[in-house]
Design brief:
By secondary structure, this protein is of the alpha/beta class. The chain is 34% helix and 19% strand. The chain has a six-stranded mixed β-sheet, sandwiched between helices. Strands 1-2-3-9 form a four-stranded parallel β-sheet, covered by helices on one side. Strand 6, helix 6 and strand 7 (187-192) form a beta-alpha-beta unit. The protein starts with a helix and ends in a 5-residue tail after the last strand.
Length: 248
């Protein structure tokens, strides 16, 4: 996202300053002089709204509907992924996510989680959560290995829906080393659409987020807001593409 936004901004003569951490400080022109801001995957808390002094566009899977926004509907994408798995005869679908992402998983305000729990409830199936405690690809590899070895064979899932592609890459590596056939024994689907996924064995099926289009629209919205501060709210919701490859 950053690369896309930087290219667009620089082409229009703007400089991009990257700020991480607290939202309010970044959106307060007294703290950080700026003409406007694009906030990625972070909502503005009600307690911070009074400190926002610059035009804001919210973008990503987590977005704020109270300001101009470019949202990504991971709910619809996840339903498409689950529908595809069902059409392939994969009924025992487990959800693999970082443990710090969950509190618990079923209560997480995330379209992927809601789609998973609601779709399985509609099918009268119980959700299967596989929380990963580590970080990165190695953390995913080690986490799935521990969970896999501690489960009864009859209880093992025949499909793994992963929170992101980093987890999915680690999962694929473990399954390959464990002699599990993908997708015959276990199908794997990631989320994000990172380039690395296409070069796995087998290549990773994933929900590819429309990063380039979202970045373009977010920058367009910000430019319009700067030019017309009183213009109506700008809003668009994009849907990720289910990219079918060898893993599912």
């Amino acid at each position: 996202v950053l690369g896309h936004v930087q290219s667009l901004a620089q082409a229009d003569g703007y400089e991009v300053v990257v700020v991480s951490g607290g939202t309010a400080d970044a959106l307060d022109s007294a703290h950080l002089p700026a003409d406007g801001a694009i906030v990625i995957d972070k909502r503005i808390a009600p307690t911070e709204e009074d400190r926002v002094t610059v035009p804001v566009v919210s973008m990503g899977a987590y977005f704020d509907r109270s300001v101009d926004h470019v949202g990504i509907d991971l709910y619809a994408g996840t339903v498409a992924a689950l529908t595809h798995l069902g059409s392939c005869g994969k009924k025992r679908v487990a959800y693999v996510a970082w443990s710090h992402f969950t509190a618990p998983l079923s209560e997480k305000d995330d379209g992927r989680i809601h789609a998973y729990t609601e779709t399985l409830a509609h099918r009268a199936e119980s959700p299967r959560w596989l929380p990963i405690k580590g970080v990165g690809r190695q953390g995913a590899y080690d986490g799935v290995r521990t969970l896999w070895r501690g489960a009864n064979v009859a209880d093992l899932p025949n499909a793994l829906l992963c929170l992101d592609d980093v987890i999915a890459v680690g999962v694929l590596a473990f399954l390959r080393d464990a002699g599990v056939r993908v997708p015959e024994d276990v199908a794997v689907i990631g989320c994000d659409g990172i380039e690395e996924g296409a070069f796995q064995y087998p290549p990773l099926t994933t929900l590819a987020q429309p990063v380039a289009e979202a970045s373009r629209l977010a920058w367009q919205f910000l430019r319009c807001r700067l030019a017309e501060p009183d213009a109506p709210l700008q809003s668009v919701i994009l849907t990720p593409e289910l990219v079918l490859r060898g893993s599912a």
